[in-house]
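Give me the fold.
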Amino acid sequence: MDNVIIRDIIQQLRDVENANLWIDENFEKKLSQVNGETAFVRPISDLHSIAEITSHLIEWRKEVLSRLKGNPRGLEINDGANWRTNEELQQRRWENILNDFHATQLQLIAFLESKDDAYLCTSYPHADTTFPHDYKYMVTGLLHHDLYHLGQMGIVIKFLNQQQKGL
């Protein structure tokens, strides 16, 4: 089987991680702009820190991978793991958060590499009956979610840079 869709999705996941995209941004580029100190700073009280956003992405990657394996929903919007506090995340240390971020990407890609395009058309067995969807919908949604938060990171980093310059 050709698996054109699976290969395309995997490439998109890799591209958002560290490719030279037309948007001129990727996670590697953004995350390299913060360190173990600045990653936990909220430049404005209503903005999440880079560590909070990265942790949020990790949790949703783990959740989507679990669902792709056919498991029922685990993470909910109001769960504490969805948006961990900076205090909690500082205990984990920035290096460990980054390692977890990269590990979840590799786990997701490894899982998808074992599947074919027909798998993507399989209905998620635990979907809400009023909103049924397949596995392709989930993976595409995860890509959209990653891109949304990549942009959010850009805003946070812009404010961090302004604070460092005293603006």
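The mean pLDDT is 91.
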